[in-house]
Amino acid sequence: MALKIKKVLVSQPKPATEKSPYFDIAEKFGVEIDFRPFFKVEPLTSKEFRQQKISILDHTAVVFTSRHAINHFFHLCEELRVAIPETMKYFCVTEAIAVYLQKYIVYRKRKIFFGQTGKVEDLAVVIGKHPKEKYLIPVSDIHKEDLISLLEAKKISYTKAVMYRTVSNDFEDNEKFDYDMLVFFSPSGISSLLKNFPNFEQKDIKIGCFGPTTAKAIKDAGLRLDMEAPTPEAPSITAALEMYLKKQQSEKG
């Protein structure tokens, strides 16, 4: 018998490479997978940023927790005609984010530090070894406070600077929304779904997600969670999706 799930919406940008497991899954199970983020990140204008009355050059170090933060920081500096001195230090939550700095600076000539585990606790330990710096933390209008709390506990001097915002990526009125399954990666995605479709009724639509905070947001919205990653059996969302479709296929027999 045919699979009940024919069309899946993955709320992320389309993978840049054809080697993505999503394409293998689509082919293997004969499902259609659409990629469409439910929200997008927009820069603050230089005028909006100036209203925060923050002087970037009053700081001796910048803390980056994402690539978005790096992009918006350097674009804003360019717009404000702020020349970042070579003495500026950079602290990143992971090595991958630190390496991304190469897009904007000569990496080997700068003082760059990063955490080993990808956890903010680890980054706070690294920052704690440089207590005399004045840190600037570029953030989105919606952000977690974990790192801020850790720095306050260590009595580190910092300024939080909102440099970009997360906005709902609205669906057009004539856009079809005929999916059998929706896959989410953050609570913002759930908020955006309910903003776009205030009368959304889940019925037979399956909902999958990655991460405990997203799972909580789905349940808090009164929706049913059908598939979750990471788990010991499914460390990634693609592994979870493949397992889910395989199970459904065997049930259909």
UniProtKB/TrEMBL annotation:
Which SUPFAM superfamilies does the protein's record reference?
HemD-like (SSF69618)
User: This protein is called what?
Assistant: Uroporphyrinogen-III synthase
Annotated InterPro entries: 4pyrrol_syn_uPrphyn_synt_sf (IPR036108), 4pyrrol_synth_uPrphyn_synth (IPR003754), UROS/Hem4 (IPR039793)
The EC category is: lyase
| Taxonomic source organism | Macellibacteroides fermentans
Under the cellular component aspect of Gene Ontology, which terms does the record hold? cytosol
GO terms, molecular function: uroporphyrinogen-III synthase activity
Ranges for the Tetrapyrrole biosynthesis uroporphyrinogen III synthase domain?
26-238
Lyase as a keyword? Answer: yes
What does the record give as EC number? 4.2.1.75
Key word Coiled coil present: no
Source organism superkingdom: Bacteria
* Record GO biological process: uroporphyrinogen III biosynthetic process
Q: Which UniProt keywords are present, listed alphabetically?
A: Lyase
